[in-house]
Amino acid sequence: MMPAYYLEAAVVILGLVLMVMEAFVEKADKSLIAKMGIVGLLVVLVSLFFVSGPAEGDDAPIWSFYAVDPMALFYKGFALVTTILVLIMSLDYRSVLQHYMGADQEKPGAGIGEFHYLPLFTCAGLMWMASAKDIVSIFVALELVTISFYVLVAFMRRNVGSLEAGVKYLILGALSTGFFVYGLTWLFGLSGETELSKIAAALGNDDSAMVRYPKALLFSLAMILVGLGFKIAAVPFQIWVPDVYQGAPTPITAFLSVGSKAAGFVVGYRIMEPFFANHVAPQLVTLILAISGATILLGNLAAVAQENFKRLLAYSSISHAGFLLLALGCSSSTTSPVNVEGVMALYLGGYLAMTLVAFHVMCLVRAQLGSEDLSAYKGLSKRSPFLAGVLLVAMISLAGVPFTAGFIGKMYVFLMALQSRYFVIIALAVVGVGAGFYYYLKVVRAMYWDDAADDQSVQISTLSKVAMLTMVALIVILGIYPTPILNLFAA
Amino acid sequence: MSILDLIIFLPLLGVAAIAFGAPARTTAKAVTGVNLLLGLAAWYLFDGSKDGFQLTASRPLIPVPEIAYAVGIDGLSLIMLLLSVIVAFCAMWMAPAVERHEKMYFISLLLIAAGAIGAFCSTDIFFFYAFHELALIPTFLMIGIWGKGEDRSAVAWKITIYLAVGSIILLAGLIALQAQLSNGGLTFDFEAWQQRAANDGIASAAQGWIFLTLLIGFGILVSLFPFHAWAAPAYASAPSPTSMLHAGVLKKFGLYGLLRFTPMLPEGLETWRNLLIVLLLGNILFMGFVTIAQRNLDSMLGCSSVMHMGYIFLGLASWNIVAGGDPIGYTGAVLLMFGHGISIALLFGLCGRLRERVSTLEMDRLGGLGKQVPVFSFLFGLAAFASAGLPGFANFSGEVMVFFGGFQGYEGGSLSRLQWATVLALWGVVISAVYMLRAYRNIFLGEQPDGLKVPSELAIDQRLPCALLVVALLVIGFYPKLFSDLLPL
């Protein structure tokens, strides 16, 4: 057994080694960097099962801001799996990158190496965020993630869309960080503590400024929610999402959509949790539910009109944030039969699998057919029955058909929301799910009903095939047997 | 391990086999053939004298709320299971030639069949619900890829969105019902629900709105007026095996669900009975006239199948009209579900064959086919008569019991609302006779119009499934006791 923070250290060191290698080993094929990264992260993923928290009597300072609980371990694994898949996707996406990096003939891989090791730093940040239980370490981890994303989003420097996305993400990311830090400072000012557990303890004390000034506390929580709202793409902070998702290189879009969202929810849950059992709970829950309802409705309805697959998934990602917020909003209900952490983990786990499969297919189609519009998917069932099959599973799971992870997540959210009697949001969610069936099946229609313009087939590497099949298996297994994840969080 | 496991998983194994390269049509035929035999074996193993679920098997999957893969059948689900395996068998055998994506075609059909069978055999509400939705996407693909008509795309969206929204409303209703029955831990086990509902009861206010939610949710799936708009166009556009399975079997899922859950919500039914009566008259009378106005055989059959749902709802509405009375309307509803499922499957199957051979299904442009294809027209006639409620067929025994159920407890004096509804519903029989007989006359009797391509007679391998359906209709028509004894009284 080893302390859990060795894992983050290992990922950072791996990233640094690859960085040095990229700079000094000129002859090497750049895809080697990604492959080494994948192998290294797989090793870290396995060692996740052999880590421990503080030993008895170990009061080293790190344990006051670094948690090792099921939630932390689950989301570390989550970050690792996401990053591995993003690296595999980036291998499939190389031809597009090369095109927009304008590499000269002699060094075809020039400028691409960074694309393969930068995700490791994001991964380290995401892993740290899963463990962060102190507002300072939360903020530092969040910045590590965000700053590496600034580079990655704008990576295709000769593509106007990518640059536009980079600028938008930079400005709005900085703005949201501002809101977030402002909320955190208010929280610190009211409680005098940076450790979340001490803040929670102070809440029980009637003399605490947090109890005496509920409006100030609500203001601070609202600012934090605004900051996180940008990260998880909740309405009304979702404006950047479609443009940035569309412009960013597809593997990075996938990373943003899965990794960034999950991290936002972990942090949100860790910060908000003590306040759900508190005097500000009613207002806080109302706020979260209002955002959730608006997010479900807008995400789903705006997706209906999209003809670009990436924008469609961007809106779909917004709508799923709405469902997750609904789960978060059920935290204060004591009658809830299942715990919110478990449901969120289940939902996000399923979301990871189905979203990454969708983006992976998109990478391959973009690289080989040259388009991200839905029209490029016409006749995909002829070009590659395999790709059409896995994308079909991903789409019906996103829509929420039973026996898939997407359904089971939604079912639990409905279960909790009904138990908490949030009937209005449930009605909105029904509308959202109905709309979802339309736009997700639009992709299915393109693949199966329509005929392709030509008979060019799509080549898939074995590595990608294995990755996609693993995710499809995960979708189906979680859809029937989600118990392992739920048990992980059972009290 | 129960025989029901085999019945559920055999079609899914067939799907896997086809996906890995087994010859599609042969596999589908073989799998459903074996399934038919297994279904009959389950009937043989079923002990009609016992209450409760039999042939059970259960495998716990999720602890909170308790969800298990659990199968079992009682009389009601046995009848539905028999309906499913019979229609599934005939649908595969009567499937016309498929030009493109043949694998996908039979995979979709098998999934629809597996979904229906799974839903009827599950005693866990989660799986009951989930299996039904298994059929949703295959139906979408079937209509989209192999459907006919210019607007098949719009039709496929319509049915899918309608059914998806209906299902999600249903899910909300089921979860709400479960929350009411959570005394002793959350569970999706149907028998536990039954017991708890019998022991603790459910507050009347909750019964009211849960029943309404379930009625809307299930109602959309059964094409209850005014949620019926998806059904007729979908059945008209879909390839005939899909229409057979969907109109014959899958649509019965909603009725099956209502018959299952209504006894837990007696006050809910009481509260909404008048609404239900109005809606079911909408099905029978409004849709009846709409059916008469149809010019195409396939859309006429689609509309007629919507119309006939009204009688089954009438049977449901008469449930417990006399407290503790004989549930004759309920028994009639079950028989009618079976009869309608078989007869509409036969009609759609024959209609599909006809479509393959003649260029049009517009009834005014057909005629005189009876002389050319006597066996075909004879079978079609039997199915049409059964559908119109001629004595001797299962539909008649069902309808008669439903009407008796509506008049239960009548001791002279003025008629209650339900009895008025029954009187009005009786006119539906006349309406059915009008459109069915007119269709028969237009297609098979009279002069053959010039230039009409003459269809060839049904081949022997096509007659076999048709004969099976006719026999099922006649057996239950002449001896309904075979099924009514299976149902609890």
Short key terms for the protein model shown above:
heterodimer, A: 491 residues, mainly alpha, two-stranded parallel ribbon, 2 strands, 74% helix, B: 489 residues, two-stranded antiparallel ribbon, 21 helices, 71% helix, globular
Give structural notes:
The complex is a heterodimer of chains A (491) and B (489). Chain A has 491 residues and is an all-alpha fold. Chain A has a domain at 312-491. Helices cover 74% and strands 1% of the residues of chain A. Chain A has 22 helices and 2 strands. Chain A has helices at 5-24, 31-47, 62-65, 70-92, 94-101, 113-131, 135-153, 160-191, 196-203, 209-212, 214-232, 240-247, 250-272, 281-304, 309-329, 340-369, 380-383, 385-399, 405-419, 423-448, 462-480, 483-489, and strands at 2-3, 51-52. In chain A, strands 1-2 form a two-stranded parallel ribbon. With 489 residues, chain B is mostly helical. Chain B has one domain (3-484). Chain B contains 21 helices and 2 strands. Chain B has helices at residues 3-19, 24-45, 75-93, 102-121, 125-134, 136-146, 152-180, 190-200, 204-222, 231-237, 240-250, 252-261, 266-292, 297-317, 328-357, 369-372, 374-388, 394-406, 417-444, 460-478, 481-484, and strands spanning 54-62, 67-73. In chain B, strands 1-2 form a two-stranded antiparallel ribbon. In chain B, α14 (297-317) packs antiparallel against α19. The longest helix of chain B has 30 residues, at 328-357. The model of chain B has no long low-confidence stretch (mean pLDDT 89). The chains are: A mainly alpha (491), B mainly alpha (489). Chains A and B meet through α18, α19, α20 and α22 of A and α5, α6 and α7 of B.
